[in-house]
From TrEMBL:
InterPro entries listed in its UniProt record: MoCF_Sase_C, MOCOS_middle, Pyrv_Knase-like_insert_dom_sf
GO molecular function terms attached to this record: catalytic activity; molybdenum ion binding; pyridoxal phosphate binding
One Pfam short name: MOSC_N
Record PANTHER family: MITOCHONDRIAL AMIDOXIME REDUCING COMPONENT 1, MOLYBDOPTERIN COFACTOR SULFURASE MOSC
PROSITE patterns in alphabetical order: MOSC
Domain of life: Bacteria
Domain MOSC: 116-263
Identification of the protein by name: MOSC domain-containing protein
Length: 264
């Protein structure tokens, strides 16, 4: 099953960056959700409450992160002494992160219209994934909601779009790996896969929220769809699911020329 797209999200909830290859570490795709915006109490901010975050442009290379909005761009060097620490909160997890220079936070705050701080997942940060992995492999997750990697099937999107009054694009679901499957939602039944050099296991269905109703280009909420329709046939208990979240068993490289192989 062929890979269609690879994405990373350098800043949580900000615009995606399409990549040709993706290095997988114990924390997930390298550079993915490496930065995050938090409020004055250190609690994470996302499109759920600030849809405009979707319009913040990002580009990450080996040396720096470029952030852009309203024709303004600035670069943050990856060479950082991480002298300033702050306790941050992502859902029920509290841990330390590095606080970026105030100048960057002030610029983003002015653009979004709220006071916020830009933080980075640093070498001293530690947020473990609860898993059944052996103790010799201790996967982490940076600022993502749950697990390090999200896999989405284009066949599942086709199935959803066939039920919608207007189709939506794959960017609404903010995946890391987009693949062309054989049937819709077949990924729900997988327990172990190989993508490129990496084996993934311990999947979890991805619960969707109001974020999938936000246009990822304009940052505007587009009504109740596609969440409304998705909830009519993909609801289990209180959750509405689309895509699967995975934990890597090893480090390695994934390329757009690779395929998804089902191992179990």
């Amino acid at each position: 099953m062929k890979i269609e797209e690879l994405f990373i999200y350098p800043i949580k909830s900000a615009r995606a960056q399409s990549v040709k290859d993706m290095k997988i570490t114990s924390e997930g795709p390298e550079g993915d959700r490496q930065w995050m915006l938090v409020d004055e109490n250190g609690k994470f901010l996302s499109q759920r409450t600030l849809p405009k975050i979707a319009t913040i442009e990002v580009f990450q290379d080996e040396a720096s992160l470029t952030i852009g909005f309203q024709k303004m761009f600035f670069k943050i060097s990856k060479n950082n002494s991480f002298k300033r620490k702050i306790t941050v909160q992502v859902w029920n997890d509290s841990f330390e992160a590095a606080l970026e220079p105030d100048l960057y936070s002030q610029g983003i705050s002015q653009y979004l219209g709220v006071n916020c701080k830009l933080v980075r997942y640093a070498p001293f940060s530690q947020r473990r994934v609860r898993s059944l992995q052996e103790e010799t492999w201790k996967p982490e997750v940076r600022f993502a909601d749950a697990r390090p990697l999200l896999l989405v099937n284009t066949k599942s999107l086709e199935d959803l779009n066939s039920r919608l009054p207007e189709p939506v694009s794959i960017d609404r679901f903010r995946p890391n790996i987009v693949f062309h499957g054989q049937s819709a939602f077949e990924e729900d039944g997988w327990s172990r896969i190989r993508v490129g050099e990496v084996i993934f296991s311990q999947p979890k269905k991805s619960a969707r929220c109001v974020m999938i109703t936000i246009d990822q280009i304009t940052g505007e909420k587009k009504g109740p769809e596609p969440l409304k329709t998705l909830s009519t046939y993909r609801k289990e208990g209180t959750g509405v699911f689309f895509g699967t979240l995975w934990i890597p068993e090893n480090e390695g490289l994934i390329q757009k020329t690779d395929t998804v192989q089902v191992l179990a």
